[in-house]
Amino acid sequence: MALTVAIIGAGRWGQAHIRTLSSLKREGLVGRLLVCDTDLEKLTDLDPEVDATYTTWQEMVEHNSVDLVAIVTPPQSHCQLSIDLMNKGIDVLVEKPLGFSESQAAAVLAASQSTGRSLSVGFLLRFHSGILKAKSMVASGTIGSLHRIQFIRHSTRKAPSQGDVIEALAVHAIDTVCSVQGEVEPQRLHISRLATGQHNNPIQASMWIEFPSGIEANISVGWDSEIEQRQLNFIGENGSIFVDFNNHDNIKLQREGVQNIIPTEFSNPPLEMEWRQLLNAKADLFPTAGATLRGARWIEQALLEAAIHIMQKQDNIPTIERTINQTR
């Protein structure tokens, strides 16, 4: 029987979930689709596949037998909302970040275990056809030993007034560079550049992550950029692989000065693939509990180092090289 699915949060990304689920409902993969948001304006002009709208999630779950809720609300609400919904006997898909610390993530995972409800964390790039293809090619030795990974996510979108680019964009980067190596635990993280907005919140950041194998990952994320860039690049001893997040059909392989176009296995958008797997009761690509804790742990470390950079800027202290290990 098709599930009753609810979305909490009908903002920019919530609308993307609604469009995806509306399409899947027309295929018969979703039974009923409910949407909740505290802002009435966001509940107007929704897809006709939406069955009902609510301004409080409590009212929504009181009047409906909801199987699965997707939490697409501001990050600060993710942790408690996830716990509250699982305590109501509802499975949860929560957008990243699950929490801002390892202890917050652990509390949500503990609630999942105690209630027996399913908890899935929405790291979209785990479902990207190009990244999955590149990951398999790296694992098979197509470019020899992997030396370095580059993650670039520059957006021309104006920085949110209170947004934090580490919580919003770097969280994807950290999860991706670990997961494509088989869920490897980093050894060290270092922020080499940080730009802040009018409220002293990080809006651009560059960081290095080192792994025990000697592989390094360079992450560059930011809003207010001159050009839009969404890339994941793998540099090996015998060549390189380039993935464009906007391209789901193929990736580029360069070896010995020759560039080849390599088709991917599928071309469906990542959000659709994420929902298809979830609705079919699969969890192959979602992060495990261990991977979820690892991501929260290293985002917490990145936020700590960012706070150090900001304090140094405020106090006019020259920035010195630091690593996370030195600040523990």
* Strand residue content: 25-35%
Helix content: 25-40%
**What about the largest sheet?**
8 strands, mixed
Instruction: Give the termini distance in whole angstroms.
Output: 50 Å
Order of helices and strands: EHEEHEHEHEHEHEEEEEEEHHH
Counting structural domains, the number is 2
Low-confidence stretches: 319-328
Question: Could you name the CATH homologous superfamily of the largest domain?
Answer: Dihydrodipicolinate Reductase, domain 2
**Can you name the CATH architecture of the largest domain?**
2-Layer Sandwich
CATH class of the largest domain: Alpha Beta
The CATH topology annotation of the largest domain reads as Dihydrodipicolinate Reductase, domain 2
Outline: globular
Characteristic terms for this protein:
alpha/beta; 9 helices; 2 domains; 8-stranded mixed β-sheet; 328 residues; Rossmann fold; Dihydrodipicolinate Reductase, domain 2
Can you give me a brief rundown of this structure?
This protein is an alpha/beta fold. Helices cover 34% and strands 27% of the residues.
